Amino acid sequence: TEIKRTFPEGFLWGGAVAANQVEGAWNVDGKGISTADMAIYKRNVSKSDYKKHNSMTEEHIQKAMQDTSDHDYPKRQGIDFYHRYPEDLALFGEMGFKTLRVSIAWTRIFPNGDEDKPNEAGLQFYDRLFDEMHKNGIEPLVTLSHYEMPMYLVNHYGGWTQRKVVDFFIHFCKTVFTRYKNKVKHWITFNEIDSIVRHPFTSGGIIPERFENVEQAVYQGLHHQFVASALAVKYCHEIVPGSKIGCMLTRLTTYPHTCNPQDMLAAFKANQFNYFFTDVQVRGAYPHYMKRFFHEKGIVIEKLESDDEILKTHPVDFISFSYYMSLVASADSEGMEKVSGNTIGGVKNPYLETSDWGWQVDPVGLRLSLNELYSRYEVPLFIVENGLGAYDKVEEDGSIQDDYRIDYFRAHFEQMHEAILDGVELMGYTSWGAIDLVSYSSSEMEKRYGFIYVDKDNDGNGTLERKRKKSFYWYKDVISNNGL
Ligand code: BG6
């Protein structure tokens, strides 16, 4: 019989953004300074140097903390979503979005992070935002922590390295669960929780120069996030009736360079390490293979007696993940051609094309990722980031002919559908950067992911006018036919 290429009923089609990359208004209505407000756009930085340029130095932090302008700090400006969200939500509604992934900026609710009383103006902003989403028929999907935390906690508590920060974060979570319990049913704890090992500042508020043993600090910070995530699950279930809350992983599917057993082992280890983070959050305990890892690195994690019980008792309801590209591992990669990727690079795969930013486009890798994750855990999956960062051109008639983006999405949707036929339980799909936004890694504006074009360039020039790209109409059609 012919297979009908539609997706399950109620499939949550939509898009994703993060507060720090769209809102702007970095010092408005009582908002405190966050880690994302430290990021500058550096001209003439090669694409492979983004990683370096994101790891914050003491000198840079001191300077940025004093700097009150938003010039050179694109994340302080975003795309002015803080003021323009009604127009943007109307456009998402026009595309037929069932859901929109946003995050709440911790610093809007608790400017320093350690206050008792929340900032009412910040809470009201998200009330307006969620109300407006519902008005447009869009269910909010809310990330509690997406690449930002109060700078005050970085400077006074060493970021996530101190236990006290778990309490502050949980106070923040309880506050927003209580306030929005009737408006938000789908939650995500930490965006790409694994990323703290690759960028300790962005994900953990850890400034490397301030620690004697950075790795020790990173894994201690990660442990605190695991505990905070489990407690967030507990309180979400207690406070928000009918809620579902998930973890979020950067899925870094890795292939062996050859069938040489050493390459196989290298790829196996890379994948296993990537699963460490979901193993803890879904299975509720540190996996066996991490013992050797910690032992060999001399890392000793300080735990409270209750921690193991907390992790065990509050596993997540679903796994959400980002998927942009696949990687290749080799036991001996010296001299081999390398490519970049989402916060991590690897050996070039000769079978794959790369994006304008050198990320290896691999739709079949998405099917593999879905199958592997589902086979390992058998809990519902949610793709909450996927998309193509590309240079777009506005034609003379004002149109944007982004056929390359349509091709990218079509190929990935076909593989998603294959995975569903394979038996994978997939809740939904939110493309990354549904509207053009500030890039995480480089703070560029011209690395565009959106269905909606935003008139703003890397130097901050532009009217901020929104325009529908060709992919806008295409995605609208996909959604209205439920993927057919
Ligand atoms: C993910 C992040 O890692 O990748 C997003 O969760 C980020 O915040 C996205 O924007 C794409 O990365 P980039 O560097 O192209 O913005």
TrEMBL record:
<comment type="similarity">
    <text>Belongs to the glycosyl hydrolase 1 family.</text>
</comment>
<dbReference type="InterPro" id="IPR018120">
    <property type="entry name" value="Glyco_hydro_1_AS"/>
</dbReference>
<protein>
    <recommendedName>
        <fullName>Amygdalase</fullName>
    </recommendedName>
</protein>
<dbReference type="GO" id="GO:0005829">
    <property type="term" value="C:cytosol"/>
</dbReference>
<dbReference type="GO" id="GO:0016052">
    <property type="term" value="P:carbohydrate catabolic process"/>
</dbReference>
<dbReference type="Pfam" id="PF00232">
    <property type="entry name" value="Glyco_hydro_1"/>
</dbReference>
<keyword id="KW-0378">Hydrolase</keyword>
<dbReference type="InterPro" id="IPR017853">
    <property type="entry name" value="GH"/>
</dbReference>
<dbReference type="GO" id="GO:0008422">
    <property type="term" value="F:beta-glucosidase activity"/>
</dbReference>
<dbReference type="InterPro" id="IPR001360">
    <property type="entry name" value="Glyco_hydro_1"/>
</dbReference>
<keyword id="KW-0326">Glycosidase</keyword>
<dbReference type="InterPro" id="IPR033132">
    <property type="entry name" value="GH_1_N_CS"/>
</dbReference>
<feature type="active site" description="Nucleophile">
    <location>
        <position position="385"/>
    </location>
</feature>
